[in-house]
Design brief:
The protein is of the alpha+beta class and 68 residues long. The chain contains 3 helices and 3 strands; from the N terminus they run ααββαβ.
């Protein structure tokens, strides 16, 4: 696991609360937010061109609800 993946894991609950439905990229443990994965990725790449950012679409809280 990369340091950026660990950062996402450590901040996951906060990300779900603040950025549900949005796309994020993390590079050098810095967060970039966009409406699309490509947008977030490109923001991170612009600032950190030598780092491959970790990207994901942040789920909505209701995505975690299970039907019994």
């Amino acid at each position: 696991m990369t340091k950026d993946e660990r950062w996402i894991q450590q901040h996951f609950e906060e990300l779900v609360v603040r950025y549900a439905g949005r796309s994020i990229a993390v590079a050098n443990q810095e967060l970039f937010v966009g409406n699309h994965l490509k947008e977030a990725y490109e923001q991170a790449q612009k600032k950190y061109p030598k780092i491959i950012p970790s990207v994901l679409r942040v789920p909505h809280p209701e995505d975690f609800l299970c039907a019994l």
